[in-house]
Amino acid sequence: MQKVMVCATKSEYFVHIGKGLLSDLGNISKDAAGGNKVMLISDDRVFPLWGEVAVKSLKDAGYEVFTFTFPNGEQSKTPETLIEILNSIAQYNLHRDDIIVALGGGVVGDISGLAAALYQRGIGFVSVPTTLLAMVDSSVGGKTAVDLPCGKNLCGAFWQPKAVVCDTNTLSTLTDEIFACGMAEVIKYGMIDSKELFDDICKNDIRSCPEDAIKKCVEIKAKIVNEDEFDTGIRAILNFGHTLGHSVEMLSDFSIPHGEGVAIGMSAVTLACEKKGICPVGTHEVLVDALKMYSLPYTSPFSLNAVCEHCKGDKKMSGKGLSLITIEEIGNAKIHTIPFENLLEFMEDAREVFA
Ligand SMILES: NC(=O)c1ccc[n+]([C@@H]2O[C@H](COP(=O)([O-])OP(=O)(O)OC[C@H]3O[C@@H](n4cnc5c(N)ncnc54)[C@H](O)[C@@H]3O)[C@@H](O)[C@H]2O)c1
């Protein structure tokens, strides 16, 4: 088992990474968060697969366990589901020293974290991510949210977990497509912060042995979050490829999943950087090889103009402009704030990536 510490302003917690850790969930939760009652929140795909072992472990550690499951997928990440969860927690009379455990991907983690932040003005929360994306990204850093009709993640709070438990056995039941979406984020960490990680994941397909790569990604995210917990500066670097990626996702009406959008966004920005001499010639080709290795796309089915136009609605765009993350070389990225009007001009050199 490997452990990474995350330091937030008001708390510190460990991310535990290893095979079979679900059966230790109860003990880890007791040590990190205490409490007598647990509301285990999951979705209707994950709970039948991994719920039983989680519930048993929590009961063995002495918890009284209640469960709440909702239909899987982003369409459940709504204020309505959140209210149902809060009502259920209240109905079972959980107190402030009891805890919520989130068992699932980023959707379950985000909505459960927000429920924990809100219930009685905040109760303890243990995150058990079961997708690669949730292990390397959404479970670390304390961002919680639900979507509003006007956009994704518009209603949320910063609320740090007491512990994160990544049982890598749970990844065995993921579809190839969902695993690949997590790989887009792993490749992102390599591109922005670690050539060593990037080289490692290009040498061997990590699916059968993902622990080291997950640990490295969590260390990078923890380092960035420790520096900028509330996302006012350096944390923006985690958005490499995301602004264009979100546009592609939205233009496809979400038939292109998040990870694939990010892969296309990374490819486009890297090519633009290369053509402008910001990163060495050949960087884009190396990235594309990595994306191909994990069955991720690197070209957009939408035009450059349509994708850039859609970026206007991105919530990462502040009054000062849009945060554009550029690559200087693999393992080294920089944040630039540019006026929205300059995005199309910057991306012009990467027109060949677009339809
Ligand atoms: N809080 C953050 O910092 C942060 C960061 C990145 C993404 N996110 C959010 O994360 C969400 C995306 O996360 P996701 O990709 O994990 O999506 P998800 O939670 O919808 O999971 C994807 C699918 O995989 C299924 N699944 C999950 N674990 C499984 C397993 N072990 N075996 C079989 N099926 C399994 C789910 O039921 C779902 O159908 C988005 O809502 C996004 O906004 C949050």
Report on the architecture of this protein.
The protein has 355 residues and is of the alpha/beta class. It has two domains: 2-173, Rossmann fold, CATH 3.40.50.1970; 187-353, Dehydroquinate synthase-like - alpha domain (Dehydroquinate synthase-like, alpha domain). It is 43% helix and 21% strand. It has 13 helices and twelve strands. It has helices spanning 25-33, 46-60, 79-91, 106-118, 132-138, 176-193, 195-203, 211-227, 242-251, 258-275, 283-293, 304-310, 341-347; strands spanning 2-7, 12-18, 37-43, 64-70, 99-104, 124-129, 143-148, 151-158, 163-167, 317-318, 321-329, 332-338. The strands form three sheets. The protein has a seven-stranded mixed sheet with strand order 1-2-9-6-5-3-4, sandwiched between helices. Helix 10 (258-275) packs antiparallel against helix 11. It starts with a strand and ends in an 8-residue tail after the last helix. The mean pLDDT is 95. It binds nicotinamide-adenine-dinucleotide. Nicotinamide-adenine-dinucleotide (NAD) is lined by residues 43, 45-46, 49, 72-74, 77, 104-108, 110, 130-131, 133-134, 137-138, 141, 143, 152-153, 170, 173-174, 178, 181.
